[in-house]
Amino acid sequence: MQTDIVTSWLDLQDKLFVGSWNESLGRYRSPWAFRGLSDSSYALSTTLMRLGGPYDQLERHLLRNFMKYAHRDVVERDSYWHWLSVAQHHGLPTRLMDWTHSPLIAAHFATANTDKYQCDGVVWCINYELCRNLLPEKIRATLDREGANTFTMEMLAGEVKTMAELEQISQTPFLMFVEPPSMDDRIVNQFALFSVMSSATLGLDAWIDSHPELCRKIIILGELKWEIRDKLDQSNITERVLFPGLDGLGDWLRRHYSPKTYQDRQPF
To answer: How many independent structural domains does the chain possess?
Structure first.
């Protein structure tokens, strides 16, 4: 897997937009999905994995109970996958993992936590167009018919009804990318998409080890985070935009007015 260490704001732009030129379209249309983390040592684990215990056995119980108690907010006819995306969006531990089409939004998530400025951040990049070629024929055919590289929830629901069915499609684990429904401004503004592993117990790190040619890792040195953070703020890539509402506004102002010197900041 290619790993790059950025040396400046301009170097970050160059590395984030590598491979975005599409010769057949004559346009800059990136095939990469991006995920930013404040600490480069963090694993690419799902919220379901971080739950611990026999989490793979708890997956169906979590969603079943979410559907039961959230019934008045989501209509009965909505698909399993729509329920799953709503649950993920509202904090339920799931197999889904958040990504974005926007490299600058990923850079935001790599630099938003000022308590981690002593650590290097990271932006993970996965080529979802090439991931598509590794999908089992049964579900890849759906993308072929639509001329798409990622699934919508509706497309996926037409082929796979549940996570249990997904696991039975192939003995070889596979990774796919799914566009969430635009259920609120947060999803829209974050230019979001989800990754889904066919196996609940196989971490994305292990999958990447088997497919290093599909991935890149961009390291943002801790010493560069303040410069990158300030320039993202000036570009209006902030919590106020990505998390519309008073909570996002409060988070943005708290970070924006925090002292630069780590020792000067008081614990909240």
So the answer is: 1
Q: Is residue 73 domain-resident?
A: no
Nearest Cα to 166, choosing from 89, 100, 81? 81
State which residues form the domain around 156.
Answer: 2-41+97-257
Q: Within a domain: residue 71? A: no
Per-residue pLDDT of the chain (268 residues; tens, 9 = 90+): 899 999 999 999 999 999 898 888 899 999 999 999 999 999 999 999 998 889 988 999 999 898 888 876 665 557 888 888 888 988 899 999 999 999 999 999 999 999 999 999 999 999 999 999 999 998 999 999 999 999 998 888 888 888 888 888 988 899 999 998 887 888 899 999 999 999 888 889 999 999 999 999 999 999 999 999 999 999 999 999 999 999 999 999 999 898 886 544 555 4
The verdict on residue 262 lying in a domain is: no
What's the pTM value of the predicted model, to 2 decimals? 0.90
Provide the token pair at 162: 């549940």
Q: Do 40 and 27 meet the contact criterion of CB atoms below 8 Å apart?
A: no
Rg (alpha carbons) of the chain, rounded to whole number: 19
In a domain, 33, yes or no: yes
- The structure tokens listed for 92 are 């339920």
